[in-house]
Amino acid sequence: MSVLEFDSVTKAYGRKKALDNLSFSLGENKITGLIGRNGAGKTTMLKIAAGFMKETSGDVRAFGEHPFNNLMVSANMIMIDNDMNMPTALDLEEIMASAADFYHNWDMDLAKKLFDYFSLNPRQTHTGLSKGMKNTFNAILGLASRCPLTIFDEPTNGMDAGVRKDFYRALLKDYIAYPRTIIISSHHLSEVEDILEDILLLKDGQQFLHMPVEELREYAVVVSGKEEAINSWLRGHEVFHKSDQAFGRSYAVIRNDLTDDQIGVAMKSGLEFSTISNEDLCLYLTSQEKGGIDDVFNKG
Amino acid sequence: MYLTKVSLLDVVAKQFRFKLKSFRGMFTSLMLLQVMAILFSLGGEGGGGGGSDTFSYDMKFYSGNIIMAFMLIWAFISAIVVTTQAYRYDDYAFVANRLSSHLANILFLGWASVIGGVTFALASQSLKLSVLFLKDREFIESHPLTLLQMTEGLAATILYLFLFTAIGYLVGMLVQWNKIFMIILPGLLFGSLFLNVLLGSESTFVIDIGQFFVRETSFLLFTLKVLLASALTYGIAAWVSNSLEVRK
C-alpha cells in the first residue's frame, strides 16, 4: 500500500505554478528525504499532503483518502514545520498533555525523556522559546506522536550542531523501534542522507528524481582534465554541470552510464574520474542555469 | 503501523477540552470586565429627587444593565477572537478538520455563555450587596423575584450571550474571508444609525432587529427564536469559512 500518492498534481498561486504536474508515490515505512532549492515547491507539496491546502488540479491520496479537510488523515499524520502555531495560554507541559490527548500513539515517556535531555523548561510558553528551542520542541512533538505519516519540514532550522545530530539519531532509533513513513525536507542533504532510504528531488514544482539514496551515489560521476580533451570527449554524454577551472582545466559532472570502452578512451586522453557527494550532485542537478555564481562576477 | 480510526464526536470532545485550557484568557478578561462594570454601576443609572420646606429626598436606581452590556460586548469580541487566524491555526497543530473545529468552537462559546450567565447573576448580586454596604441609605426597595423568574432570567442571559457569540463569530469569519468587511460592517451599522437620525424616523434598523427578540413575551418562543437565529448565524459563518484555506 502506498501511504502518500500524488497524481499529476498542480498548485497554482495566481499565474505562478508552485507544483507543476507532480506525480510520485511513497511506500509504507520508509524515510524519504525531500530535497530541492528554495522555491522548488517542497513546502507547498508537504502542506497539500498534510491536508492544509487544496491542490488546484490532480489527485492526492494519503492512506487512500483525499487529505484536504480530512479527519482520518489528520489523526494519522503530523506535520512539523517552522511556523507551527501553538496556543499562547499553554505552557510546554500542557501542550504535550494536549498532544497526548489527540494522538493515539503518543509516547509520553519518550516525550518527557527527550524534553529533559534537551533541557527545556516545562513552564515556558511556546512563543517564549528561541527559534532553535522552538524547533527542538516541535521535533519532540513529531517524534513522540508516532503518527503513521510524519512530516518534518526543515526541522533543524536554528538548531545548533549538537542538537541536530542528536535529533537525527533519536529519529533513526525511534523509527527502527516503531517503523513509520517519514518525510524530511532539508537543505542539508549531507546531514540527513545517512538515515534516508529514498530521495525525492524537486525542481520547479516537478519531480526530478525519486530513487533510493544508494542509487543516487552511483548516479553521476565527475570527469576532469584538459579543457579540449573534455570538450571533445563529452559529446554524446548527459552533462549535469560543467565549469572551467584554472590552468585550462575543466570539470564536468555527467550521468554514470559509461561503458568500459568509453572509460578506456577517456583515460587515454588524460581524463580523470572521481565521485561526487550527493549534496553537491543535487545542487548541480537543481541549479537553474548552466554555470554558477562565478558567472555573476565574470565580466565579458 | 495500523491506522487510527476516529469519530467526529470524539475529536470534537478532545478539541473542546483543548479549548477550555487554551482559551482560558477569555475568562480572565470576563472577570476584569465584571469588576469594572460593577464599579461603573455603583454610580447609579438614574434617579431624581425633590422636597418641600420640611423635607427633601434623593432617589437613585441601580441595576445590572451596565454589567449586562459589558458582558454582551465580551461575548461578541470573544467570538471574533476565536475566528482570528492564530486561533484557527491552533486547531490544526493537532487533529482537526473544519467541521470539528466549528463544532468545538460553538460548544466552547456556548459553555462561555453559560459561565457568563452564571457570573452575571452573581455579579448583579454583588452589586446589590455593594450598594447595601457602601451607600448611605435610609430606604431600599429591591424588585423581588420568584425562583421561576430568576431561572428564566438566567436562561435568557445565557441565550442573549450565545446569540452575541454567534453574531461575533459570523462577523469574525466575514472579516477573515475578506478584509473589506472591516470597513463595510461598521459602515452599515453607523450608516443606518445616522440615516435614521437624518430622516427623523424613530426606529433604526439595528433596533428593529433587536425588537424581534426583546418584545417576545413567551419564554419558550424567545428560546426558539434565539436558538434558531444563532444556528443560522453559525451556519452562515461555517459556510463562509469554506473558502478559507485550512491552514497556510
From TrEMBL, chain A:
<keyword id="KW-0067">ATP-binding</keyword>
<dbReference type="GO" id="GO:0016887">
    <property type="term" value="F:ATP hydrolysis activity"/>
</dbReference>
<dbReference type="InterPro" id="IPR003593">
    <property type="entry name" value="AAA+_ATPase"/>
</dbReference>
<keyword id="KW-0547">Nucleotide-binding</keyword>
<protein>
    <submittedName>
        <fullName>ABC transporter ATP-binding protein</fullName>
    </submittedName>
</protein>
<dbReference type="InterPro" id="IPR027417">
    <property type="entry name" value="P-loop_NTPase"/>
</dbReference>
<feature type="domain" description="ABC transporter">
    <location>
        <begin position="4"/>
        <end position="229"/>
    </location>
</feature>
<dbReference type="InterPro" id="IPR003439">
    <property type="entry name" value="ABC_transporter-like_ATP-bd"/>
</dbReference>
<dbReference type="GO" id="GO:0005524">
    <property type="term" value="F:ATP binding"/>
</dbReference>
<dbReference type="InterPro" id="IPR051782">
    <property type="entry name" value="ABC_Transporter_VariousFunc"/>
</dbReference>
<dbReference type="Pfam" id="PF00005">
    <property type="entry name" value="ABC_tran"/>
</dbReference>
<keyword id="KW-0813">Transport</keyword>
